[in-house]
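Quick one: structure tokens for this chain, please?
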Amino acid sequence: MTAVPSPTGTPASGNAEHPEVSICLITYNHAPFIRRAIEGVLAQEKPFTWELIIAEDCSTDGTREIVRTYAEQDPAHVRLILPPANTGAMVWVDLMAAARGRWVAYLDGDDYWTDPRKLVKQREFLLAHPDSSIVAHTMRVLDQASGRFLADHGPGSAKRWFDLDDLVERGTFFCNSSVMYRGDALPPEGPDRGATHVGDWLFHMQAAQHGRIGFLNERMGVYRSMPTSRSASNRRDVDGALGDLLYSLDRAKSFGASAGAVQRGAARAHFVMAVSALEHGNFPVFRREIDASAEAGPRISTMQRLLIALRRSPTVARAVIRAYARASRQR
């Protein structure tokens, strides 16, 4: 593949073996959505060499047949990873390890990008800030069930720069489908296989140990909120997800995260799991996890303090959580 001219007329660096930008897309049973995701990638302005790697996790709804057509139409740019059996999303590890680009963007197969200059803007940002390892952006949130747009997804402040401690304390405060990484900040073997339910947070940490996190407060894509999503499944499997969160916090210590950030991250992890248990009516686990959040030390939010106070009244606590969720969706 020949180099694609840049806007300035100089050839972009990179070639078929080492493209400038890798776009990594994972999909499973996304037949109603995958075309829009891929078309959003193809519609991007790309004054650089690029590749689109699609990991299709043995869908049962025809998704694999759809992605094959795109690879057949443009084999120079589109590569497929097609495991013979469903991996439970662990094909994501192989997907990220396969990226060859100087910059690596990520997209879930049920989300899509709306700004045709998204990749250009993020690449330019990382070029201008070589001390950064990640740049993310605001995403609109679409409630798939109602078809309504909810509150935007982002850090919720005008802050532009974040670091490893911010990520450890707050969890992933940006949509995964908004991320572009600096390729040399990523582990060449791919994400840590020790986190099998919630691996994205740890992967972000692996990159953030090598540079700052930038945030662009621009809507450049759409995140679909659906009860069948992987994140929703993780919320139901509290113990599995919690194990990954605690494992990630333990790894964060070796990355250089401060003790205070790890402590606050533990309080938040247990709080998140308490809320998940509460939402699903698992009151014993709710009490266990809200107690663990309190024992972790710091008080991290007004809602956490309220749920600690209501630990003996879980039905009231659940009503509070539901009211807060409704108010948040209407913002």
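The longest helix spans residues 259-279.
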